[in-house]
């Protein structure tokens, strides 16, 4: 018999459900679940129905699976409440919000060492996934223009990244008809490296995408070494292949914790960088950024100008209307924290990640794969032949009984037989919470070790990976 699973069981819920009499008015007896009702209801009733249902969600502060910010301080929440109605696209109606977006672009261009931070191009997005799409589109258009200028075919573009790349790059390749060339990771090469890149690129490569903070393990791919290899390739063959850095997580970590690491626009081959403002940028969900090294690295014909909002507005994005509040929250963080504040926040997260990796690594059951030395993310696997009775999926489920969400998932192709667990340490996860987590973690392991037979499971629903 298939194991119970919440997504499957949602389909078996009644089509209608009664409302609590305490909150209902006359006529509010049952509510259709899957269609809009004929009549409305009191705002208190609608609120209470949804409030009660989302009480079953997990506690965001105990979600160690997601990279996305789950805590901001009260003044930031107040600013959010005052600005959630602002539409980022409507720059004529909200000129100061537009000006603040422009300031953030300049701040990030400077933070990432653009040679011309006051004039280069950049834009906010709804997240780093949209930012990646825009960076990829610019790579493709620049490649097409160069090929056409030489009278060469533009029929077979390809893009190179590791098999541990975030799914948005698979989407990019699929949606925009670009061949994805995966450099598969393996135990000897656990991330994209220069050798793998050189073996994969050719005259049809629109760009290479190394990751500053791999989603699976949090490690940095060696961007400077990849750029050096591509420089040498150009000297030998004339092929000039640009780099887009997916710094979704590391773009707000490396400048503060590893300022001497060369990964950004100090490398002339790096033409664009994306980052998630709503990850280690410390902003609530709904914000990404993409910045180009210099103005000419973004093809002008990708920018549209519209007049129907008042004024002549340039727009370069996949979305049109989108929230402006998160942009204001990003600027709030820049003002509130400064470089010293960002360092203090990120350093605390890193120290807590190192604490957890040390504690878990000292247990007999586990082998640490990443300790949080790059971005504050740690990952581990179960030691081979430790036990036949339980897996990391079972440990993940057991931790949920305490409220903790910690994903277990397989590594990408060529290493998919290895299952790992990962913790993302974010702002708001204190050392005290880390100690409390370890108490529950050890209790969970102790319970699983007490079993005298394997845990029954439905492997179809094992994967607990979260972005």
From TrEMBL:
One of its GO terms (cellular component) is cytosol. Keywords: Decarboxylase, Lyase, Pyridoxal phosphate. Residues 1-21 are annotated as: Disordered. This is Glutamate decarboxylase. Residues 1-14 have a biased composition (Basic and acidic residues). Its EC number is 4.1.1.15. It holds the Pfam family Pyridoxal_deC. CDD domains: DOPA_deC_like. The keyword Phosphoprotein does not apply. Its cofactor is pyridoxal 5'-phosphate. GO terms for biological process: L-glutamate catabolic process. Belongs to the group II decarboxylase family. It catalyses: L-glutamate + H(+) = 4-aminobutanoate + CO2. The modification N6-(pyridoxal phosphate)lysine is found at residue 279. It comes from the Bacteria. One of its GO terms (molecular function) is aromatic-L-amino-acid decarboxylase activity.
